[in-house]
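Q: Could you fold this chain for me?
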Amino acid sequence: MSFTRGTRGRNAYHIFYDVDVIAYVEGDDDVSFWKTIIKAYDGAEFLPKMKFKPQGGKLPLLGFADEIIDGSITKSLVFMDRDYDDFLGLMKQHPAIIYTYGYSWENDVLSLSALIEYIQLISKADADHSRTNEELESFLTAHVNSGEKLLKLDIPATYHGSPIQNKQNKTELTIVTDQELKFCPKKITEKVAIVNCEPTFTPLCSDFLSEFHGHTLIWIFYNQAIYIAKKFGRVIGTSLDLFVSYLLQNCHKNLEENSERSGYYEVKCSNIFEFIGE
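A: Sure. Below is the predicted structure, expressed as structure tokens.
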């Protein structure tokens, strides 16, 4: 709607929708995630009325964030993926600007228990899942070891404008067969040579599952869930979209498995409610 163009329009947006605040997010899936976060940590005396507005990406949100910081717009919140912003010194600080704890919301909804439950859901009802946990832990160990090395290359490469991991090509650095999916050292070496980037720093990060590209991780873990489920016979109808929906529907449980992550969102939501109530 044209009246939203410019700061005057954005300042009146909450009145048009009869809400306490407008919450700008990147995409449609982000709405489901952030609604869950707000409801899970509604420690305030009231749960504010919010209108969530997907913007089709992060770039528009950065502009809104700047307007919030300089006071040009009020009654507005910005929820966005952290990406590598903290490592690159690009974080915008304000109670009304909230980043994901991990690289993106996808990282924050992934958990070992969620994967086990999903495998059980899509497997035959009489399947024996006694070794599922063991297989997943083995898979995680292998990916984390190679993934952490990739992560420490990708962050400084991104800093220089030539990321190693292409957000739009999840398979670029992997080997995919009917039986396995893993990062390929040769492909990574070749891509490092192509971007021709000499890292000027080594990021002190090791939590691959939290810090690496969430879209890629979701794709990797979905495929691994399928591989394991197939060992039990026929796999009941599923898709990547259904997997994502399942994770979103159960993300409150996944958040509780990580006390640091849960504590982060609790503090951020408390700041939001205090800010809105001012």
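A (continued): The longest strand covers residues 21-25.
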